[in-house]
Amino acid sequence: MEELVFGWEEWVALPDLGLPAIKAKVDTGARTSALHAHDIEVFGPAAKPKVRFNVHPIAGRDDIAITCSAPLVDRREVTSSNGESEQRFVISSTLTVADQQWPIEITLTNRAGMTSRMLLGRQALADHISISATERRLQPELSYDAYHDATVRRTAPKRALRIAVLSRENNYSTRRLVEVGEARGHVVEVIDTTRCYMAINAMAPEVHYDGKRLPRYDAVIPRIGASITPYGTAVIRQFETIGTYCVNGSAGITASRDKLHAHQVLASKKIGMPTTAFAASPKDTSNLMGLVGTAPLIVKLLESTQGKGVVLAETKKAAESVIDAFRGLKANFLVQDFVKEAAGEDIRCLVIAGKVVAAMKRTGADGDFRSNLHRGGSAKVVRISKEERETAVRAARAFGLGKAGVDLLRSESGPKVLEVNSSPGFEGIETATGKDIVGKLYDEIEARVKPQPVRRRKSG
User: Fold this and answer.
1) Mean pLDDT, range 286-310, rounded to an integer
2) GO molecular function, one example (predicted)?
3) What's the pLDDT score for residue 282?
4) DSSP string, 257-292
């Protein structure tokens, strides 16, 4: 390597950690290098632990934080220049100066009181480096501008993420989320939503689980059952308060789960759906039916899932009987026009990050107008039209969902949205289409957790 001369302070980069520019104090009196880090947490398997931490690369700018993760090399007792000893986590990373790179060991510690965010010790100063202790910044200048423009996202490395899947079930979808995430080098932890509890305060909101505070996750993937929607969304709200990226937000899940609210959202965005009517206790059943049209009609319990609580009334008399029965149970229900031309088929579009990544046609079992796979329906891959694609994307966007199953009916007047599912399963659609849907979800998560440029402060 070409010989380098360092002054007592130099600009360096740590590309493995996503730090394109940082000022380092060169200290030949120190053996190990140190990096100013906070929120330091160990994660992953005991045999191959990783460490996740945040770095404020610019002194005095706590609003600029880069989240880093790296394999844990060691835990070491380090004595600082003032004689104080502390246990520090040790990582290995690539140091870049000028156009040269070499690996160094770095300890993680709180250097909040120091103007330089990093200290370069003897171990980092390779044989080809000499020190001119009275001078500073003899190597090429870098710039903090990298944290204020797209450079910070473009140069962000692929790092190991710590991801929580909120799920109470060990089913295909949950297992796939774990398998695919771990294959990409991430640590995926399945959390039983009902065992979470919350510390709600203004200064430090927290989520606790089995007696311990949950760590900071890079992302949360909610897979919350309909029966625990209110509590599940409260847990997600708590993660949102902390600032964790949630694939689906609490408001979108709440709105999509309430069939009446969901239809109101779709109507407000002028998204096509079967004509729908709802009333708490209409005096005249025929008035409610008249708002929708003539029989056959669909009568749906508002809390229904997977096709349960959905009845096809083929005649006016049958519809009146079903409505009276539901009302007698004091159940909330809505009445909907039956789209005959759909002929017991619907199209499930899986939307991730504003794109339809897969679509399948679901056909009901013999004699069943419902096409749910849980009820014995079958599925096969289908080509969808531009209008169907746009309708599915608009429906997912109306609820602010990063991941959604949008069910469409093909009607004579264009696609009609039957339902927007905020917790779609992956088994049916991956089997039917042969696509790695979960991998596409992780593509989006990895893109979303990259650092964002922070605006410059106006001087003066």
Assistant:
1) 75
2) ribosomal S6-glutamic acid ligase activity
3) 52
4) HSHHHHHHHHHHTT-----EEE-SS-S-HHHHHHHH
Q: What is the mean pLDDT of the chain?
A: 88
User: Is there a contact between 160 and 48 (Cβ–Cβ < 8 Å)?
Assistant: no
Quick one: 128 exposed, middle or buried, by C-beta within 10 A (0-12, 13-18, 19+)?
exposed
Q: Binning pLDDT at 50, 70 and 90, where does residue 203 land?
A: low
Q: In what order do the strands lie in the sheet with 206-209?
A: 196-199, 206-209, 212-213
The structural domains of the chain, with segments of one domain joined by +, span 4-155, 275-338, 341-449
Separation between Cα atoms, residue 342 and residue 258, nearest integer Å: 24
Q: What is the structure's pLDDT at 381?
A: 92
**Token pair 């423009």 in the structure block, residue:** 149
Integer Cα distance of 249 and 312 in angstroms: 33
Measure CA of the first residue to CA of the last residue in the chain; give whole Å. 44
- Angle in degrees, CA 269, 272, 274, rounded to 5: 125
Q: How far apart are CA 235 and CA 208, in angstroms?
A: 10
pLDDT at 304: 59
The string of DSSP codes covering 183-213 is: HTT-EEEEE-GGGEEEE--SS--EEEETTEE
DSSP one-letter string for 307-351: TTTEEEE-SHHHHHHHHHHHHHTT--EEEEE--GGGTTEEEEEEE
| Coil, helix or strand at residue 98 | coil
In the predicted structure, residue 460 carries a pLDDT above the cut 50: no
What average pLDDT score do residues 395-399 get?
A: 97
Contact 201, 109 (CB under 8 A): no
Name residue 104's beta-bridge partners: 93
CA–CA separation, 20 and 335 (whole Å): 59
> What pLDDT score does 166 carry?
96
| Integer Cα distance of 171 and 429 in angstroms | 15
Does domain 4-155 fall under CATH 3.40.190.10? My reply is no
Q: Characterize 410-425 residue by residue with b for buried, 16 or more Cβ atoms within 10 angstroms of its Cβ, and e for exposed.
A: bbeeebbbbbbbbbbb
Task: Look at residue 277 in the predicted model and tell me its pLDDT.
Answer: 83
Fold of 275-338: Dna Ligase; domain 1 (3.30.1490)
Does residue 183 carry a pLDDT above 60? Answer: yes
pLDDT of residue 227: 84
Per-residue pLDDT reduced to its tens digit, 348-392 = 999 999 999 999 998 866 555 554 555 556 788 999 999 999 999
